[in-house]
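RECORD TYPE: protein structure
NAME: L-lysine N6-monooxygenase MbtG
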Amino acid sequence: MNSREIELLAIGAGPSNLGLAVALEELAPDLAENSLIIERNQTVEWQSGMLLPWAKSQVSFLKDLATLRNPRSRFTFLSFLKATGRIDGFINMGSLTPYRLEISAYLDWVARSLSKVSVELGRDCVRIEPSRDDSGTLTGWVTTLADGSQIASRYLVIGTGRDANIPPVLAGLSKGRVIHSTGYKQGVAGLSKQFPYRVAVIGSSQSAAEVFKALRTDLPDSDVAWVMRSIGPTVDPSSQFTNELYFPSYIDEFFDTPAEGRDRIRRELYRTNYSCVTPAMQRSLYADFYRDRLENREDRRMVTMTEITAAREQDGEVILELTDRRTGEVTELRRDVVFLGTGFAWRPPRLIQGLADAIGLAEVEVTRRYRLVVDEPAEAGCYLQGVNEATHGISESLLSVLARRAEDITLDIVAHRAANRFRHDSHSVVPSLVSAQSRLH
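PREDICTED:
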């Protein structure tokens, strides 16, 4: 079995862990040289399933991997534009928000520009287990990859994002019939552009709106019903005032607020990030519907105030049971394919929950500096990125805070290493994989 030891392993080559890599190279270069990012995909892409040619980021380019922490960094978005010869054109666009394709290209450029942190693609993590020494002290982690190889590390950072949310009523349908927005491009690529499919789009979020809009081009002859529980698409109600609660500087205040207060804040801010669309998307959608009416087209429509109360497959089609939330009337909608714009699950991702179970944790908690809380002696650390909204605020899953979060994690690891220097000086990163495995099994 192929195995190796490193000091820090980061799982997922998305914005969070690439931001961490940048912080490591600039703040802790010695640690960076013994750090590795693994990514299950063969390329570094941002929101690959929704890389639509017209889709834009919803945050300023200044909220990149480095600027809010170090504006002089060579890894800023402006440095990327300069290196790729597009800085003049971008400035001339007069927009703070880049196209999503450009953010994705920026992340790939950063991954290729790292000089100390290694990045390996096509490396799928299937399991993480704790490693302990003879005294029972937690000393590291053993990560098993899909090919059977293992990586032992003292520090672990999980930045894979949350799992896609598949509503329970639809969970039993075949994957070929139900496609989450995270796999939209891949899913629609397998459908004939000329065939008149009957399509349903579920949800009222920005992703649902983008799928609905994209289908006009990707499946132009299809009948598309956009089904949502709400009265209609709602515009993001953010303002400069509410946006201040997305600042990295607000995290301390949020973290120090009692749990009940944090929940109230999250409920107040929910519509600024979830189940809403941008003003630009709202205008575009309405213009599309207006033109449809001019042309007497009825093959693109919204079905609002409607709950999906049952679903089944029969004779090669999906049959959705729709319940009108106003009248209680039940009808059936027969579709060939269903696209989901239903966001992401609130529960911990499967990888994190599996790790928590392996350690024996009753619940997943992190410190202010994102270190997993373990109720046992530990000389190792595990950090979670992008999944701590309950304790760190609504910005946790967004680009807004990741540069400063990367700094927090890097400095916490540096301090933790210093506090345990005697172990690092006299031992390998973790006990041997052979001895670790004998204790694990």
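COMMENT: Residues 49 and 186 are 6 Å apart (CA to CA).
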